[in-house]
């Protein structure tokens, strides 16, 4: 039975996160004698899903040894890996930490994007080619109705990528 759906956008770089609410709507039968109820109305004991960002995903500063292709990988556990033209990732790089609250012991579905584009203040673009999380295979809220997880990613650079880049990582959560 589908329940409340909550969508959120996690900021990358040094961006403040933006949060949006997207409830799932169910159409009512116009040919029925009595209107049916939507999933939100029928699940009165179900707590609404709430999601918050404790920290934003931030690759900090990347040191480019030469112009050309390279990548910076920031794993959910904070491990940093630089390759190609990227010689190091700044010491203040942090993974995003997300907290979901809802009904205790409920399984949830969490959708993360495959790719995220970042936009520079000078007009350039970079891409996070994969968003990486430490979510379990079958995520569920614990006995207190809470689930915490972290996300990182792999940022790919090509050519002269000087500047500051920002973007959003949309995250949506739904009861199963």
Summarize the structure.
The protein is mainly beta. It is 2% helix and 46% strand.
Number of strands: 13
> How many discrete structural domains?
1
Per DSSP, what share of the residues sits in E-state strands of 2 or more residues?
over 45%
Mean pLDDT equals 79
Total helices: the number is 1
Radius of gyration: 19 Å
Stretches with pLDDT under 50, minimum 5 residues: 1-38
Plain-language structure description:
The protein has 176 residues and is mainly beta. It has one domain. 2% of the residues lie in helices and 46% in strands. The protein is built from one helix and 13 strands. The strands form two sheets. Strands 1, 2, 3, 5, 6, 8, 9, 10, 11, 12 and 13 form an eleven-stranded antiparallel β-sheet that branches. A two-stranded antiparallel ribbon has the order 4-7. Strand 5 and strand 6 (80-84) form a beta hairpin. The longest helix has 4 residues, at 39-42. The protein is elongated and about 55 Å long. The termini are close together.
Describe the structure using short key phrases.
single chain; 176 residues; mainly beta; eleven-stranded antiparallel sheet; two-stranded antiparallel sheet; elongated; disordered N terminus
């Amino acid at each position: 039975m589908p329940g409340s759906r909550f969508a959120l956008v996690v900021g990358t770089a040094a961006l403040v996160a933006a949060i949006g609410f997207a409830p799932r709507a169910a159409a009512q039968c116009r040919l029925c004698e009595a209107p049916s109820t939507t999933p939100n109305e029928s699940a009165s004991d179900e707590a609404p899903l709430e999601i918050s960002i404790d920290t934003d995903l931030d690759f900090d500063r990347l040191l480019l040894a030469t112009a050309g292709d390279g990548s910076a990988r920031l794993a959910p556990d904070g491990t940093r890996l630089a390759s190609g033209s990227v010689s190091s990732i700044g010491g203040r790089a942090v993974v995003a930490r997300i907290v979901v609250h809802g009904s205790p012991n409920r399984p949830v579905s969490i959708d993360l994007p495959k790719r995220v584009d970042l936009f520079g203040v000078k007009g350039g673009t970079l891409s996070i080619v994969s968003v990486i999380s430490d979510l379990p295979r079958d995520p569920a809220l614990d006995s207190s109705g809470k689930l915490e997880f972290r996300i990182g990613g792999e940022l790919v650079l090509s050519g002269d990528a000087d500047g500051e880049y920002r973007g959003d990582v949309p995250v949506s959560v739904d009861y199963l």
